[in-house]
Amino acid sequence: MTAEQATAWGADGAHSPVMNNYGSPPRLFVKGSGAELWDRQGARHLDFLCGLAVTGLGHAHPEVTEAIAAQAGILTHTSNLFANEHQAPVAEAISRLIDAGPGQVLFQNSGAEANEAALKIVRKYQGRGRHGVVSAYRSFHGRTLMTLAATGQPEKHEPFQPLPEGFRHVIWNDLDEFEKSLTPEVGGVILEPVQGEGGVNPADPEYLQGVRRICDERGLLLILDEIQTGFGRTGHWFGFQAAGITPDVVTMAKGIANGMPVGAIWARDEVAGAFVPGDHGSTYAGQPLALSAARATIAELEAIDAPRAAITIETALREGLEPLPGVDHVRGRGLLLGVELNEAGLGGRTAGEIARACLDRGLILNGVTPSALRLAPPFILTDAQVAEAIDIMTSVIAEGAP
Ligand SMILES: *Cc1c(COP(=O)(O)O)cnc(C)c1O
User: Fold this and answer.
1) Do residues 270 and 367 both lie within one domain?
2) With a 6 A CB cut-off, is 141 part of the ligand 1 pocket?
3) Over the chain (402 residues), what is each successive 10-residue block's mean pLDDT?
4) Where are the alpha helices (DSSP H) in 127-204?
5) Which of 271, 303, 335 is where one domain is finished?
6) Does residue 261 have its Cβ closer than 6 Å to ligand 1?
7) Distance of CA 112 from the midpoint of ligand 1 (Å)
8) Of the candidates 303, 330, 348, which is a domain's last residue?
């Protein structure tokens, strides 16, 4: 174990009790409030990553905390052999925010599980022989074998071959390439409205509109993976709404419950009907404790008009970052932004190293490509917090200049 791991895990000796799946954690956080986190040594950090686009309302949000605490004292779990009082209201709220006609919701526990369910519903709906799914290079759809196969990052596939078959990947934002990839066994396509893990790459609205048209012509299901983009993050409730299209299936997770593990899929009625009892299931999914958090989170996101807050803060961040000499451009939508650094800004460093330097000054963000930082801050930032983060980034980026 490295000294760093020993610090993070609070253990000494040679053997870490936790698998080394995530590398050496650079901090161990013990407390959060709003956009701020405190580590074990009491150092304050400004959280511009939100646990990977999850805690949009900030940490320890009073309404969400109260809902979870109250539910924990009443009822936490009964399984899907029974209903609970949160399922229908949360499903209705999701359908209302998706606003794409009549549809139904199936709860899951994570993003990968939501996509797994979506990929299974394509097979069930389209039938044998039309199980193929097209996705884009640089996409990220999860870590289960099916969702890994859908993920358009071949280097992530290699250690786990052979993967489930039927997946093919196409160049992002290229409609001709998409159309050329379609063979009779393709039954669906899965796309992120803004590729998150792949570098914060927004879909052109014309691309999504073109994909929708081709899906209609050929009877393909269009799945929008809104796991990172959903619930206001891009300045719309769901990212696809910027393109004015209607999806067949939407998958969601991260922002839905402010940190409680919840995922879900929405499908328009006809597609939703493809799943009948016995087709799919999960012991925990939709359990009352998790959904109490989702219910409180969605209500609060609506109360603060999260999409509008995202646009307001995006504007302030762009005004602060775009003029910096070390910044090539800022891409993304709302509060899912990629800050692409030029050579001067990088100054021989990777974006990951720059993110680490920001962390050491108390600002949490991450390097999403070797040359781009990702910002996914909460909707509740104050002007002072935005200014503080811009100051830290400005000085860390400026250190790269010769
Ligand atoms: C995070 C993410 C996933 C996977 O979600 P998990 O909850 O980590 O399984 C899938 N798709 C997208 C777009 C994501 O950002």
Assistant:
1) no
2) yes
3) 50 79 94 98 98 98 98 97 98 98 98 98 97 98 98 97 97 98 97 98 98 98 98 98 98 98 98 97 97 98 98 98 98 98 97 98 98 98 98 96 75
4) 145-150, 154-157, 175-180
5) 303
6) no
7) 6
8) 303
